[in-house]
Amino acid sequence: MRNSVLKPILALTALSLLTTACATGGGKKKDLAYVARDVNSLYTAAKTRLDQHRYKEAAQLFDETERQHPYSVWARRAQLMGAFSYYLAGDYTESIASAQRFLAVHPGNKDAPYAYYLIALDYYEQISDVTRDQKITQQALDALGELIRRYPSTDYAADARLKVDLVNDHLAGKEMEVGRFYQRRGQWLAATIRFRKVVDEYQTTTHVPEALERLTECYLSLGVREEAKKAAAVLGSNYPGSVWYQRAYKLMQEYPVPAATPAS
Fold first, then answer.
1. How would you label 72-93 residue by residue, b for 16+ Cβ within 10 Å and e otherwise?
2. 138 near 107, Cβ under 8 Å?
3. Which range, of 58-62, 127-131, 197-201, 238-242, averages the lowest pLDDT?
4. Which residues contact 215 (CB under 8 A, 6 or more apart)?
């Protein structure tokens, strides 16, 4: 789910890191041969690779800067730039590890919000379609929430709030996909639980109107007409012009009312 809107924020932060330091450090990569170099040479080489879009090489050189010069005042910057380079290379696992290592060593640093932002983006970029397991999606939501909680006034948090809405919509879509599966199999109660979750937990998503209509269907199939009537009423109150309300209304009109039980 890579979003080009992210690039200005990432680029500006990366630029600030690059321009405030001529040297930095980071890393544990074993496939880069050890050649002792001064911090300026290593950092400059890493920056050059980054400018050339050779992101994996840049990340390894930023890591090497930290490894060879761990006590340099710029080591923490190379650590973040390594995480940023791994992100651009699509190596999200390494990017997360680098950013988390930075936070473990420098939890109160002024660049900590950026590290949290990178971690959230690394998870966000891995979100898969709704037919697959959504563990990564939940991790993305948790990481975005952590960023918003810790640094609510930052530009990173503002972007994270937009992404939370998209992630919630994605998770709701997964519930709908599973609910429809149960519905096709005539497993009305199981389907109801999924559609109910969308209505209760993902109220601001685009899936709510359909969830309410399908709840109407399921409740009618279960023989609990009053619950179906409530679902249809909520749908009509909140989404009166939607095709889902038209379907629910038609169902309520066509579905037979249970005959009254004769008095004994």
1. bebbbbbbbbbbbbbbbbebbe
2. no
3. 127-131
4. 192, 195, 196, 199, 227, 228, 231
Q: Rounded to two decimals, what is the model's pTM?
A: 0.74
User: Which residue has 């994605």 as its token pair?
Assistant: 170
Structure tokens at 87: 């992100």
Give the pair of three-digit tokens for residue 51: 């400018």
C-alpha–C-alpha distance, residues 52 and 210, integer Å: 48
Tens digits of residue pLDDT in 192-228: 999 999 999 999 999 999 999 999 999 999 999 999 9
Identity of the amino acid at 127: I
Supply 254's token pair. 């066509």
Tokens describing residue 33: 């041969």
Q: How far apart are CA 114 and CA 10, in angstroms?
A: 9
